[in-house]
TrEMBL record:
Ranges for region Disordered: 1-36
Extent of Low complexity compositional bias: 10-24
Protein name (record): Uncharacterized protein
Highest taxon of source: Bacteria
Length: 366
């Protein structure tokens, strides 16, 4: 993480006190102990400016979103994240913006030559030290964004634009709340008014970005429903949208497609997909993944299917059928019909009847 972005508008002053007191007295960090934590407003303003650029790039009401738009949206969104999280950390204590606070010195901070906190570290410090509520989902969205940015810088755009747009929407959503709850209340009246005005524009922009993501999702759902494919459309492991349609179809070049996500355009072989839905610790499909219908070792667990998206069910990636009433045997993990009122498969049940003391205790059956 660099500090470069922070100085575009702050005139090189990293700390508010240093900026305002520079003319009156020697450049020294003097702040009365009783002063309330103040935010570095140039930092916040800079972050808001980056966000305004993100919204401009992603707003489809103005013009079509191009690859170039997506690229700059990601870069500026990541810059905004870095700057705004740091502004809040600074309010807690300036040493927290150093990757290693033990090595913090005023000199390196003022000269902006420090090795700066990473986004992941910033999130942890905000949660643990500043008590800022950041959910696991939000933390993950921030992490994905950092990855998108890194990939973008090295390889160009690796995920399709709609996916990045949807992810950017999540981060933007988080940042708007973060600015509202964590940053604006720490500003003076005048700065606060300016901040609120920028924020309300951002809210408008976010609404239209979300609308486009939602419209796309709705359009896909409409198509899938018309095709009668809701019960073989699952949540995509790549983009997390309920848009991955299983079942053979023909691609634009006449090629055979066995699984394709309509949201991120990702294509899969059913075997690759199954790997995402094996129980923890299981590396390869085995007899435990035998499909009750086709018998193939292709049954995955914990799959979300569009026809009933709130449930996680067993799904066969060979015959593309969901089995909502199939559960793993409590003891051996083999698929069984869970409507039968038992948690054990036939052979585990027999074992349990033969030796009741054994049930639930023996490890060597596994
Ligand atoms: Zn997808
Ligand atoms: Zn099957
Ligand atoms: Zn069993």
């Amino acid at each position: 993480m660099t500090l470069a972005g922070e100085h575009q508008e702050s005139g090189g002053a990293t700390t508010p006190a240093a900026a305002t007191e520079a003319s009156a007295q020697p450049r020294r960090w003097v702040r009365p102990r009783s002063a309330p934590p103040q935010l570095d407003f140039p930092l916040v303003r800079n972050g808001l400016d980056y966000l305004a650029s993100v919204v401009e790039h992603l707003d489809e009401t103005e013009s079509m979103v191009t690859h170039r738009d997506v690229k700059y949206a990601v870069l500026h969104l990541q810059a905004a994240v870095e700057v705004l999280l740091k502004a809040r950390l600074m309010a807690e204590h300036w040493s927290l913006v150093f990757s290693d606070p033990h090595k913090a010195t005023r000199k390196t901070l003022d000269e902006a030559t420090l090795s700066s906190v990473s986004t992941e570290q910033a999130v942890t410090r905000l949660q643990n030290i500043a008590g800022v509520p950041i959910t696991q989902k939000e933390g993950k969205a921030l992490k994905n964004l950092t990855e998108d940015r890194n990939k973008l810088q090295h390889f160009g755009l690796t995920a399709p634009a709609p996916v990045i747009e949807a992810r950017a929407g999540e981060v933007l959503d988080f940042l708007i709340r973060f600015i509202d709850d964590e940053l604006l209340p720490r500003l003076g009246q005048e700065e606060k008014t300016e901040g609120e005005a920028s924020l309300s524009k951002l809210r408008g922009g976010l609404a239209s970005i979300n609308t486009f993501v939602r419209e796309r999702t709705n359009r896909i759902r409409g198509e899938v429903t018309r095709e009668g494919a809701e019960n073989r459309t699952i949540q995509c492991p790549e983009c997390e949208q309920m848009a991955l349609v299983l079942g053979e179809s023909t691609g634009p070049a006449g090629e055979l497609v066995r699984a394709a996500c309509r949201f991120c355009a990702g294509r899969w072989e059913p075997e690759e997909l199954l790997a995402y839905f094996l129980p923890e610790g299981q590396e390869e499909p085995s007899g435990l993944n035998a499909c009750p219908q086709c018998g193939e070792w292709a049954l995955g667990w914990g799959v979300r299917v569009l026809s009933d998206p709130m449930e996680e069910v067993a799904f066969c990636f060979a015959c593309s059928v969901a089995f909502p009433s199939v559960a793993p045997c409590d003891r051996c993990g083999r698929p069984i019909d869970a409507t039968g009122g038992t948690d054990l498969c036939g052979s585990c049940w027999e074992d349990a009847v033969e030796d009741p003391s054994d049930y639930g205790y023996s490890e060597d059956q596994w």
